């Protein structure tokens, strides 16, 4: 067994900021008409359940604009259900900041898993007694709300996605703890869940009040479309957050850093490669979605539309939220997004990444 030191993924040396490229996303912007009211009620809920630690945390949490975020994902959703989904997004950002990216669990996978096992069970049994951790009790409040407004199938799908997210975050924390930078294949596999995309998209059915039949939701083409939407959005988040992470001097597992570390690119070259991969996936998503739509049920068509809204809404939200666009953490604010008329990589061959190459198979 080799005893060579693992690469340090927490290099604190400053890096030059990178300007986000034009985004290829031919999906029209949309937002729920009651987004402002959903945000107002979400703030009331945050103050009632009080899972933030202090006023600074509260301000940071409200700065995520999570109600706007989910209102862009489900612009035609049932207002009450979109409200409940927005609560989870606020909770998810708070959990990510306090338990994943920083704090006593952020480099201790053993402690993280010991904490998240009971937390996941508290979500699944939201009427049980699981201590007085504010993040746990707030998550149980969300869990009870979902049981009231969603079908059992929708709730189970959300629970499964939530568990997969926590597992992937533990994988990410394990890499951090041992100073390991994953290669592109492992990073892509991990990022399918560690970015929180799976539970976020699992709430689309709940938000829209429309359960997709299992024979459609579990079909390979729909599974691929869901994973593609998660991957495009998570890579977009990597591009959005890179400058912030550099400003905070904790650049870690990020698509740009993965390409720099394992393939020898300069950061601007890694950015170009990442955008090319992202655009190829986006092109495949659009092509496959149009092939699935004609034979889809009404519920599936609504879900497929929301996947597109999720990709576009994630971009529009990122250029507004203080989470990515703040002068305190980067000398290059995001400003306004620029849009590309065509993909930077229009290739139709699969990406050379084993975990996702199947997206280009004959899926229908």
From TrEMBL:
<dbReference type="InterPro" id="IPR034686">
    <property type="entry name" value="Terpene_cyclase-like_2"/>
</dbReference>
<dbReference type="Pfam" id="PF19086">
    <property type="entry name" value="Terpene_syn_C_2"/>
</dbReference>
<dbReference type="InterPro" id="IPR008949">
    <property type="entry name" value="Isoprenoid_synthase_dom_sf"/>
</dbReference>
<protein>
    <recommendedName>
        <fullName>Terpene synthase</fullName>
        <ecNumber>4.2.3.-</ecNumber>
    </recommendedName>
</protein>
<feature type="compositionally biased region" description="Polar residues">
    <location>
        <begin position="1"/>
        <end position="13"/>
    </location>
</feature>
<feature type="region of interest" description="Disordered">
    <location>
        <begin position="1"/>
        <end position="21"/>
    </location>
</feature>
<dbReference type="GO" id="GO:0046872">
    <property type="term" value="F:metal ion binding"/>
</dbReference>
<keyword id="KW-0460">Magnesium</keyword>
<keyword id="KW-0479">Metal-binding</keyword>
<comment type="similarity">
    <text>Belongs to the terpene synthase family.</text>
</comment>
<dbReference type="GO" id="GO:0010333">
    <property type="term" value="F:terpene synthase activity"/>
</dbReference>
<keyword id="KW-0456">Lyase</keyword>
């Amino acid at each position: 067994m080799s005893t060579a030191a693992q690469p340090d993924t927490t290099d604190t040396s400053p890096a030059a900021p990178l300007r986000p490229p034009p985004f290829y996303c031919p999906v029209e912007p949309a937002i729920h008409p009651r987004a402002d009211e959903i945000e107002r009620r979400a703030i009331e809920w945050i103050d009632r359940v009080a899972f933030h630690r202090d006023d600074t945390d509260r301000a940071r949490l409200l700065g995520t604009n999570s109600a706007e975020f989910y209102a862009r994902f489900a612009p035609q959703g049932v207002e009450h259900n979109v409200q409940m989904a927005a609560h989870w997004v606020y909770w998810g950002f708070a959990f990510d900041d306090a338990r994943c990216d920083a704090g006593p669990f952020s480099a201790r996978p053993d402690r993280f898993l010991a904490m998240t096992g009971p937390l996941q069970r508290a979500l699944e049994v939201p009427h049980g007694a699981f201590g007085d951790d504010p993040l746990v009790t707030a998550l149980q409040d969300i869990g009870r709300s979902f049981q009231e407004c969603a079908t059992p199938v929708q709730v189970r799908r959300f629970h499964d996605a939530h568990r997969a997210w926590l597992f992937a975050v533990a994988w990410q924390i394990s890499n951090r703890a041992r100073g390991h930078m994953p290669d592109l294949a492992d990073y892509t596999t991990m990022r399918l869940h560690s970015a929180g995309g799976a539970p976020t998209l699992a709430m689309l059915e709940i938000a829209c009040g429309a359960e997709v039949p299992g024979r459609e939701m579990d079909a390979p083409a729909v599974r691929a479309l869901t994973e593609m939407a998660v991957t495009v959005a998570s890579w977009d988040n990597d591009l959005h957050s890179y400058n912030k992470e550099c400003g905070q001097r904790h650049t870690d597992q990020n698509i740009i850093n993965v390409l720099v570390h394992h393939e020898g690119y300069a950061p601007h070259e890694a950015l170009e490669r990442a955008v090319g991969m992202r655009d190829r996936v986006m092109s495949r998503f659009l092509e496959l979605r149009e092939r699935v739509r004609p034979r889809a049920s009404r519920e599936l068509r609504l879900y497929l539309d929301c996947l597109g809204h999720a990709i576009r809404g994630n971009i529009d939200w990122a250029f507004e939220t203080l989470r990515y666009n703040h002068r305190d953490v980067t000398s290059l604010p995001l400003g306004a997004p620029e849009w590309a008329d065509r993909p930077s990589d229009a290739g139709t061959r699969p990406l050379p990444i084993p975990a996702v190459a199947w997206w280009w198979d004959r899926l229908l």
